[in-house]
Design goal:
heterodimer; A: 183 residues; alpha/beta; Glutaredoxin; 2 domains; 5-stranded mixed beta sheet; two-stranded antiparallel sheet; 6 helices; B: 187 residues; alpha+beta; Immunoglobulin-like; 5-stranded antiparallel beta sheet; 4-stranded antiparallel beta sheet
C-alpha cells in the first residue's frame, strides 16, 4: 500500500475527523441515541404481574399477541396526566383491532383510583409503586423519569420506547404500522 | 471569484480517489457514511431528549455554617425545576431546632394542581440544629421531587450528605456534594 501523502488524503482525513467529532458532539448532546431497549426486553415485561385497582394480580403476558402499549406513569407527574386522555381515545378507537393499553402507576392505589375515575380510564391501571421505576430502568429508561412508554409488537418484542409524552399522531402511526394491513 | 474556486474543488474531488489508495478510500467511505447517515436520521434520538440523572438535575450539597447550623443547597440544572412543597429535610443524630424556612419559589400554574411554587437555579435552605453533636458530624437527608421542561418528571428522590461541623468560632466548612459534579468537554 502506498503512503497517503497527497493533500487530498489529508483533506479527506480531516473532513472525516471533523465529521466524527460532530457525531460525537451530536450524540453526546442528544445522549439517548440508539438507546432503544433490547427488543427481547418485551419478554421480561410480558413476564411481569402487578395488582390492578381491585388488588387482583394481572399478568402482562395475557395481552401477548396484541399490539401492547405499556405506559409508566404517576398521578404526581403532570406530563403523564396530560397525555393520558389521548391514550383513552386511541384505546377506544383501536380496541377491536387487537390493541391494548396498560398503565403501570408509580403511585399508590387510592390516588390512581381517583384519577382513573376522573379520566374515565378505559384500560387497566396496574399498581407498580416505586419498584416500577426500576423495572422501567431495566427496560431502557436510563434516567428513571416519567412518562415512559413501551410499544410491543404482536410478537412481544419492544418496538418503540419513548421517554416523555407521545404525540397522539405519532403513536397512531406506530400502532397502525404494527397492525396487520387491513384490506 | 466563485467559478474557478468551485471548479478547483470539483476537480480535486474528482481526483481524490486516484490520489488516495483505494483501500484507504474504501475505509473512509465505510466510516463516514454511517456517521453521516446517523447525523441526518432522526432515529431514536428524537424520541428521547437528553435528560440528566435526577441526582445531577437536582444536585444536592450541604455546607456547615457554624457549630449548630448547616446550609442545604440544590443546584437545579437549567431546564429543570423542583416543587417547593415536596422538599423535606431531616438531620441525624441531632434534631432540627426549628422547621426549615423555605424561600418563596416561582409561581407556576398547573392545570391539575393549581398554582404551585417551584425552584429553579440555586436554592439554599438554612437548617438550625438542636444543639451541636460536640465537634462531630451531621447527616442531612433531603427528599425532593422535580421535573424537566422537556416534559418528564422524576420520582421523589432521597439524597444524603454528611458534613463535619466546625468548632465554635471556626471557619465554615466546604460544601459537600451528594453526587460529585461531573466534568465533561461537551457539557
Amino acid at each position: 500500500m502506498s503512503r497517503p501523502s497527497s493533500r487530498s488524503t489529508w483533506v479527506v482525513l480531516i473532513v472525516a475527523g471533523l465529521l466524527a467529532l460532530a457525531a460525537g458532539w451530536y450524540f453526546g448532546r442528544s445522549g439517548e441515541a440508539g438507546h432503544l431497549p433490547d427488543p427481547a426486553g418485551g419478554k421480561t415485561l410480558l413476564g411481569v404481574s402487578l395488582p390492578d385497582l381491585d388488588g387482583k394480580d394481572q399478568a402482562l403476558g395475557q395481552w401477548k399477541g396484541k399490539v401492547l402499549i405499556v405506559n409508566f406513569w404517576a398521578t404526581w407527574c403532570v406530563p403523564c396526566r396530560e397525555e393520558m386522555p389521548e391514550f383513552v381515545k386511541l384505546q377506544k378507537e383501536f380496541r377491536d383491532r387487537g390493541v391494548q393499553f396498560v398503565g403501570i402507576a408509580v403511585d399508590d392505589p387510592a390516588k390512581v383510583k381517583q384519577f382513573a375515575a376522573e379520566l374515565g380510564l378505559n384500560y387497566p391501571a396496574l399498581i407498580g409503586g416505586y419498584g416500577a421505576i426500576e423495572l422501567s430502568r431495566s427496560l431502557g429508561n436510563r434516567v428513571g423519569a416519567l412518562p415512559y412508554t413501551l410499544v410491543l409488537d404482536r410478537q412481544g418484542r419492544i418496538s418503540r420506547a419513548q421517554l416523555g409524552p407521545y404525540k397522539s399522531a405519532d403513536l397512531r402511526d406506530i400502532i397502525t404500522q404494527l397492525l396487520p394491513k387491513s384490506g | 471569484m466563485k467559478p474557478p474556486a468551485l471548479r478547483e474543488l470539483k476537480l480535486r474531488a474528482k481526483c481524490a480517489p486516484d490520489l488516495v489508495p483505494a483501500g484507504l478510500m474504501h475505509l473512509l467511505r465505510m466510516w463516514t457514511l454511517p456517521w453521516a447517515l446517523a447525523l441526518l436520521a432522526p432515529s431514536a434520538a428524537a424520541q428521547q431528549p437528553k435528560l440528566l440523572e435526577p441526582e445531577r438535575a437536582f444536585a444536592f450539597s450541604v455546607q456547615a455554617v457554624d457549630e449548630s447550623t448547616v446550609e442545604a443547597r440544590f443546584a437545579v440544572a437549567n431546564g429543570y425545576y423542583l416543587y417547593r412543597e415536596k422538599l423535606k429535610f431531616s438531620v441525624e443524630p441531632v434534631a432540627l431546632a426549628a422547621a426549615p424556612v423555605l424561600p418563596p419559589g416561582q409561581m407556576k400554574h398547573d392545570e391539575f394542581f393549581g398554582d404551585v411554587e417551584t425552584y429553579r437555579g440555586t436554592v439554599a435552605i438554612r437548617l438550625p440544629l438542636k444543639g451541636s453533636p460536640g465537634g462531630g458530624s451531621v447527616t442531612v437527608k433531603a427528599e425532593s421531587q422535580g421535573c424537566a421542561d422537556a416534559g418528564v418528571c422524576y420520582p421523589p428522590q432521597l439524597q444524603k450528605v454528611t458534613v463535619a461541623l466546625p468548632a465554635r468560632g471556626a471557619r465554615p466548612g466546604e460544601p459537600v456534594y451528594a453526587t460529585p459534579p461531573k466534568k465533561s468537554w461537551f457539557n
